[in-house]
Design a protein that fits this description.
It is a single chain. This protein is α+β, with helices and mostly antiparallel strands and 150 residues long. The chain has one domain: Gcn5-related N-acetyltransferase (GNAT) (Aminopeptidase, 3-Layer(aba) Sandwich), CATH 3.40.630. The strands form 2 sheets. Strands 4, 5, 6 and 7 form a 4-stranded antiparallel beta sheet that branches. A 3-stranded antiparallel beta sheet has the order 1-2-3, covered by helices on one side. The longest helix has 15 residues. It is globular, with a radius of gyration of 16 Å. Bound molecules: coenzyme A. The site of coenzyme A has 22 residues, from helix 1, strand 3, helix 5, strand 4 and helix 6.
């Protein structure tokens, strides 16, 4: 996650050491472990052989909290697969839409996957490049043997 931000998100932090430091300040193993204790959120990873290629998190109400690909796995489908998994998890927990705040770096990626901008950019970690986006989710298919949901 730290490498993803530092190495891939230059369109957001522009290599500014102060902005990068602010963004990375809470991306520590200890803080991350605390986030993972949140009961209403799921943390998913995309793997490639034994390595984690991407990590993401979504709340049961559909807020995508994070979605970061390793620079070693960029543009090989990891984030696409992970995003589909996050959306499926949210839909499975009853969410009707997914929301997120995109980086400038990932804006095109989310647009290409059905996300629409839903408001003015927000300020995060000293940068004005947080883009609120949302996508309406398809309802999960009814499980075999269960009455159809009408
Ligand atoms: C942009 C990013 C999210 C794409 O993830 P990925 O795992 O590398 O991408 P995938 O292989 O799953 O999908 C490729 C998609 O990336 C996008 N993409 C391709 N080239 C790109 C480029 N030069 N810059 C930005 N996006 C690009 C396209 O939408 C492409 O999809 P398409 O081929 O259908 O057009 C990722 O590379 C990245 O930079 N992540 C940095 C962390 C970040 O910003 N996370 C989002 C936090 S909200």
């Amino acid at each position: 996650m730290r490498r993803s931000i530092a190495e891939l998100c230059g369109a957001d932090h522009h290599g500014d050491p102060a902005l990068l430091a602010a963004w990375l300040a809470n991306k520590t193993p200890k803080v991350f472990a605390g986030w993972m204790r949140r009961a209403d959120a799921s943390y998913l990873v995309a793997t490639e052989r034994d390595a984690i290629a991407a990590v993401g998190a979504v709340t049961d109400s559909g807020e995508i909290l994070l979605n970061y690909v390793s620079p070693d796995a960029r543009f090989r489908g990891a984030s696409s697969a992970l995003l589909a998994g996050l959306e499926a998890r949210a839909a499975g927990r009853g969410a009707r839409q997914c929301t997120l705040i995109s980086t400038e770096t990932a804006r095109r990626f989310y647009r290409a996957r059905g996300y629409e901008e839903i408001g003015a950019p927000v300020r995060k970690f000293g940068m004005d490049s947080g883009f609120p986006m949302a996508k309406v989710l398809a309802r999960p298919a009814a499980l075999p043997g269960r009455a159809a949901d009408v």
